[in-house]
């Protein structure tokens, strides 16, 4: 029997645009994902998050379901455009009240709230002013962070600034498969820097108010397709852009020199000002790690796909390394076409612990999409997801045994929901949602996870 340490935190995660719906309710303004999803051809099936799974109206029953499953923590994101529609100025009280009610409901149920300030949904007016490639957006983010944490900070002690800045920068401004859908390599690099600068500015404010703060980065175990020099070089490049471009500034206060060289034809890094890296490397109380799969890469442009991670689009999220190809191995795949490679999670966690200053780690997202459907009895049996979670929790145990300071795990996702450019075609949830009726049905994996939390199942 595999046991995780006493005090290990078990939770589940969601994101505002994917679940809340109520897109035009109570003063909420449009975000870049509202705009993007309404543009023809951007999202599979032309679907949007306008309704999603109606969490805005159903949050009380959703929190009751979390309590029934025994979740110890709930990681959710705050819709910036719901609480500050223009991305600047006074807060929208109706939007703030929603999150205040949600926090109170969670606390009453004995569930620790873990809010994320930014999960990809920039207020549209800020994108109209240039978006994340502009330094001013980082400043506006810090203002927003200070305002909302001052309101909810009396009941919330743990804050996450950003979720997966790689996706915001390189899928949003590089490949264009995510909002705002731009394809500009130099803008993508600037966006990445300003996202991290905004994180650092916000982290300073949050820590000075006496709260704990972290950031969540999506990390991959990057593996060369062979020991050929061309493939080793491809792995170095992708590891640099995917992992070290964010880990090094946040934890070491510097950009990797090899990544700067790789990007020499894209940008001269003149957007990085004196003092920026000191701000970005503000000490963290936790580092969130999102892990789903590994990258197997080749430098042979005739092989592999472009690794853009979306349902379509012609741009590349790999500025300076557009020639690198991404391969599928022989392992089983999820509905996203991602290899199931649990050992990669152990490798990622061990690497962070080995190569960077010590900081408490949490797996803030880990999960898999499968084509779930209710059976004739109305049950949703998802043994593949149980196998996925089992394997990755074993990987967590292996990392802990190796000395990694891993303190908790959040399954992605609590609910089936709007899966970005894939619309509603991919189901990641522990809970099945009938999008026509909004009926919630816990899957077999939800009960398995519940039993695990309560110590009734051997992992």
Automatic annotation (TrEMBL):
Its EC number is 3.2.1.21. Pfam families: Glyco_hydro_1 (PF00232). This is Beta-glucosidase. Coiled coil: none annotated. It catalyses: Hydrolysis of terminal, non-reducing beta-D-glucosyl residues with release of beta-D-glucose. The active site is at residue 365. PROSITE patterns: GLYCOSYL_HYDROL_F1_1, GLYCOSYL_HYDROL_F1_2. Keywords: Carbohydrate metabolism, Cellulose degradation, Glycosidase, Hydrolase, Polysaccharide degradation. InterPro entries: GH, GH_1_N_CS, Glyco_hydro_1, Glyco_hydro_1_AS, Glyco_hydro_1_beta-glucosidase.
């Amino acid at each position: 029997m595999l046991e995780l340490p006493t005090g290990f935190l078990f939770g589940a995660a969601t994101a505002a645009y994917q679940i809340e719906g109520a897109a035009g309710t109570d003063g909420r303004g449009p975000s870049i994902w509202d705009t993007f999803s309404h543009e023809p051809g951007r999202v599979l099936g032309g679907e949007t998050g306008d309704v999603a799974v109606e969490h805005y109206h159903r949050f009380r029953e959703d929190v009751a379901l979390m309590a029934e499953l025994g979740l110890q923590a709930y990681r959710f994101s705050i819709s910036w455009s719901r609480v500050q529609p223009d991305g600047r100025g006074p807060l929208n009280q109706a939007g703030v009240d929603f999150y205040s009610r949600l926090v109170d409901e969670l606390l009453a149920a004995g569930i620790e709230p873990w809010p994320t300030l930014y999960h990809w949904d920039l207020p549209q007016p800020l994108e109209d002013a240039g978006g994340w490639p502009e330094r001013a957006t980082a400043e506006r983010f810090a203002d927003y962070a200070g305002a909302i944490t001052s309101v909810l900070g009396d009941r919330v002690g743990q804050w996450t600034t950003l979720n997966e800045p790689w996706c915001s920068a390189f899928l949003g401004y590089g490949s264009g498969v995510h909002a705002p859908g731009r394809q500009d390599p130099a803008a993508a690099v600037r966006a990445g820097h300003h996202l991290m600068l905004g994180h650092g500015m916000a982290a300073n404010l949050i820590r000075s108010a006496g709260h704990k703060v972290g950031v969540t980065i999506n990390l991959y175990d990057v593996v060369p397709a062979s020991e050929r020099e061309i493939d080793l070089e491809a792995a170095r490049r992708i590891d640099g852009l995917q992992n070290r471009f964010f880990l090094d500034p946040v934890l070491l206060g510097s950009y990797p020199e090899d990544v700067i060289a790789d990007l020499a034809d894209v940008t001269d890094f003149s957007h990085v000002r004196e003092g920026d890296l000191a701000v970005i490397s503000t000490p963290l109380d936790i580092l969130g790690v999102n892990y789903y799969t590994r990258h197997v890469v080749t430098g042979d442009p005739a092989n592999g796909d472009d690794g853009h991670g979306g349902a379509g689009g012609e741009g590349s999220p790999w500025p300076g390394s557009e020639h690198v190809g991404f391969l599928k191995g022989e392992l089983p795949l999820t509905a996203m076409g991602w290899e199931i490679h649990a050992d990669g999670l152990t490798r990622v966690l061990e690497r962070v612990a080995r190569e960077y200053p010590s900081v408490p780690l949490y797996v803030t997202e880990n999960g898999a999409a499968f084509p779930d459907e209710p059976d004739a009895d109305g049950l949703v049996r998802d043994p593949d997801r149980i196998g996925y979670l089992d394997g990755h929790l074993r990987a967590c145990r292996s990392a802990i045994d190796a000395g990694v300071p891993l303190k908790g795990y959040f399954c992605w996702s609590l609910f089936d929901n709007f899966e970005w450019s894939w619309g509603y075609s991919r189901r990641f949830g522990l809970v099945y949602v009938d999008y026509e009726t909004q009926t919630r049905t816990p899957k077999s994996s939800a009960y398995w996870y519940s039993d695990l939390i309560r110590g009734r199942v051997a992992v």
